[in-house]
Amino acid sequence: DTGVSQDPRHKITKRGQNVTFRCDPISEHNRLYWYRQTLGQGPEFLTYFQNEAQLEKSRLLSDRFSAERPKGSFSTLEIQRTEQGDSAMYLCASSHYASWRSFANEQFFGPGTRLTVL
Amino acid sequence: KQEVTQIPAALSVPEGENLVLNCSFTDSAIYNLQWFRQDPGKGLTSLLLIQSSQREQTSGRLNASLDKSSGRSTLYIAASQPGDSATYLCAVIISNFGNEKLTFGTGTRLTIIP
Q1: Nearest CA to CA, how far is A80 from chain B (Å)?
Q2: Cα–Cα distances in Å, from B60 out to A41, B64, B77?
């Protein structure tokens, strides 16, 4: 396992279609994060999982977005009825979280999925 | 709400020069600060992570410093090379009940001129 992987790397879709992205974290990592990055901006937090539990969702994540991590390993992010404003780079990151630590844990990012909605 | 600012937005320097990238944040109650590199159309590569109790970290030609009280961090790149051309992002973590989400700046686009 050499790092976080994401599939597909690029997705072009028409407005109104549904799309699904996949993220495979580093195998021993229990935390998985999704971020969205639009052109010229830094990434923004969308949601995160600890094992299979989705613990927080950003208000950026409208009800057209859903994320799962069914077995605490890979995760999927689905966007229903895509809109042109959904065009962005979707980034996944993973980390190993341990509550007893007094410091936060380094996040490692995948290559991203670039979504273009026509 | 935590805000992270990176100035300048773009920087061009001749090859071989040393340079400093700046990052400022509004809330000093951070746990970590991470510096990332992003090549065009690519994901993020972690460069350095500074814990809140630390003041600096070094890796090769890179040195990152952290001053929590003033809400500032700098990334120093020594002897710049054309391969250093990329966008550099800083990000902070304020642990909200265990959610270690990163809050990013908008980045500095660095160009090293051969």
Answers
A1: 24
A2: 28, 11, 9
pLDDT by residue for chain A (118 residues), tens only, comes to 579 999 999 999 999 999 999 999 999 899 999 999 999 899 999 999 999 999 989 988 889 999 999 988 999 999 999 999 999 999 999 998 776 666 667 889 999 999 999 9
User: What CA–CA distance (Å, rounded) separates B15 from B25?
Assistant: 29
d(CA A50, CA A18) in angstroms, rounded, equals: 26
What are the start-end ranges of the E strands in chain A? 5-7, 10-13, 19-24, 31-37, 44-50, 53-57, 65-68, 75-79, 88-95, 108-109, 113-117
Contact state of A42 with B4 under an 8 Å Cβ cutoff: yes
Q: Cα distance from B18 to chain A (closest Cα, Å)?
A: 25
Q: Name A27's bridge partners.
A: none
Of A41, A45, A56, the CB nearest to B102: A45
Residues 6 or more apart whose Cβ sits within 8 Å of residue B36: A109, B44, B45, B46, B47, B88, B89, B90, B91
Q: Identify the helix (H) or strand (E) that includes residue B56.
A: strand B56-59
CB–CB contact A43 B44 (8 Å):
yes
Question: Where does the pLDDT of residue B81 fall: very low under 50, low under 70, confident under 90, or very high at 90 and above?
Answer: very high
On whether the CB atoms of residues B100 and B92 are closer than 8 A, the answer is: no
Residue B69 CA from chain centroid, whole number? 17
Q: Say what the pLDDT of residue A97 is.
A: 79
pLDDT score, position B112: 97
